[in-house]
Write a sequence for this structure.
């Protein structure tokens, strides 16, 4: 397993795509902070509290980032025929699946740490600071990141499963988007349609515990550690369910 993981790391870190994507994302962060710094030089007063608070509004982008990191690691293996070669070589399918997921997770965590650290560092250096306000917003940011992390991992498991089960990367992306972005809306609408029936509490419960909804509400309930614990439970369920589905489907899938 470790040899396979090292090989996957070697491939993904040798791709120009990986580093180009990271540089583009960091450049966009830098451009955002540079814009604020420019307005500050011309009489505005954007502070670190505001800049760090913007990070909270961008937490949902972490779900879309799973599409990016899965695409980096999976690298169109069905289209290029390399998946068939790996299977024909005799590698266990569970090793292929879990090895790629581990690398996807590691790359996702690397991107998260680098991007969050870079952005907050720029805000700290170039925006106005207030020690009391800065300490407060960093507590909120820490809580929200800790709440979002297991949910991002759960959605990453969902995206990984579709990449293995669907031959087209585009359709795999769309299928994953339907699950983590469109499904919550569908559940919310269904809850309104059924009205005050016995099904309404079930739909409300499901809606409130969808990853995207939990991440969006995290900044408003910062410090509620019970909800943070629920996020870890929800993330673990998504991780277990989609990993089991993906593994089972990949083991039975005919590789052409």
């Amino acid at each position: 397993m470790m040899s396979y993981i090292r090989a996957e790391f070697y491939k993904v870190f040798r791709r120009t795509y990986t580093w180009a994507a990271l540089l583009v994302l960091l450049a966009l962060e830098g451009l955002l902070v540079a814009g604020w710094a420019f307005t500050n030089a011309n009489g505005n007063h954007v502070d670190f509290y505001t800049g760090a608070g913007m990070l909270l509004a961008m937490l949902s982008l972490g779900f879309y980032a799973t599409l990016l990191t899965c695409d980096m690691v999976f690298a169109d293996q069905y289209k290029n025929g390399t998946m068939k070669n790996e299977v024909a070589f005799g590698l266990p399918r569970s090793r292929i699946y879990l090895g790629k997921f581990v690398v996807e997770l590691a790359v996702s965590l690397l991107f998260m740490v680098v991007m969050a650290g870079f952005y907050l560092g720029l805000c700290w250096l170039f925006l106005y600071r207030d020690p009391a306000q800065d300490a407060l917003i960093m507590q909120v940011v820490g809580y929200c990141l800790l709440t979002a992390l297991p949910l991002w991992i759960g959605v990453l498991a969902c995206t990984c499963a579709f990449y293995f089960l669907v031959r087209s990367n585009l359709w795999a992306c769309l299928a994953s988007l339907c699950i983590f972005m469109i499904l919550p809306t569908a559940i919310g609408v269904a809850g309104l349609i059924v009205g005050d029936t016995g099904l309404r509490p079930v739909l409300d419960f499901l809606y409130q515990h969808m990853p995207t909804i939990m991440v969006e509400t995290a900044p408003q309930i910062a410090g509620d550690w019970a909800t943070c614990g629920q996020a870890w439970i929800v993330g673990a369920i998504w991780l277990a369910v989609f990993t089991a589905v993906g593994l089972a489907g990949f083991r039975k899938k005919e590789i052409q």
